[in-house]
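Hey Z.,

So I finally got round to the zinc ion thing we talked about over coffee. Here's the setup:
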Amino acid sequence: MPEGHTVHRLARALDGLFGGEVLAVSSPQGRFAGGAALLDGHRLVAAEAWGKQLFCAFAPDLPDVPARVGREPGGPHELRWLRVHLGLYGAWSFAGDGSADVVHAIGAPRRRIGERETTPDDSGDDGAGPGGGWAPPEPRGAVRLRLLGAHAVADLTGPTACEVLTGAEKAAVEARLGPDPIRADGGRATPEAARDAFVARVRRSRVTVGQQLMDQAVVAGVGNIYRAEALFRAGVDPLRPGRDVPEAALAGIWDDLVVLMRDGADRGAIVTTRPEHREPDGGGARPTRQNTDGEPGAVPRDASFYVYHRDGLPCRVCGAPVLTKELAGRNLFWCGVCQV
Ligand SMILES: [Zn+2]
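And the result:
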């Protein structure tokens, strides 16, 4: 499942590709036909992420109506919000005419982002239409949602959630989410309030800190990789009850997540190792696909993590074998020496 940094990148890509444009919205598979009809012919005015939730705002294309008229909640032209959660199997596929904006937004004329971070697509179908003009490729697989603009197309397959919300319904979804380290305000009134909310929430419970970090109501956007890596970098035992972790340690974990996850969103890959610890492990760890694989200058994936998928390999800091165990249905990775 993509972690929050990937969803933030998707929001940026959708904004870059389609922001301000009137889109043809459809559901080639048919399962989202009703929702697509609510958005078809509307203008995508903004895309944003909160944790693993993606929200796209659509406004009616009404050239004679000033932008703010009727957009208030309950008004006749209120924004409609597309909410997408990729879940385990969801993915977006992008294709475009290769214009500079498209390449800037998605890094290549055709790209798939979602499950296992990214899957390069080498179908050879470049979408060249008759007469050399660009034509969107045929939908491939069960495409729940297609967003089609003048220069690009985005196809969504296999999401856990895909629905159209009012502003009030979107706010209700957000109210259930913990603070998000990637958002500039952390998803609270101020960045400091976001950190305080995280610290207080973890310390309210005796559930292990390892389990709480995966709870989207505690912190939004953290998945199995950031969970394992942030706890390692903080030297905190993932099996320690939340209420027993010192406030300063939790505040430090939050501040570290802010840096790591924003870097992930910018870089398109998770890298948590400090340069002095980046000895490749010779492919001993199970491979984790990342968006930047193969790009010049990218940190190799077998040098990117301290503990994630490195069970049995020597800890990069102390040399003890990295441990693993199942916790609440997900594999946890940690060093029993460095994290006490
Ligand atoms: Zn260690």
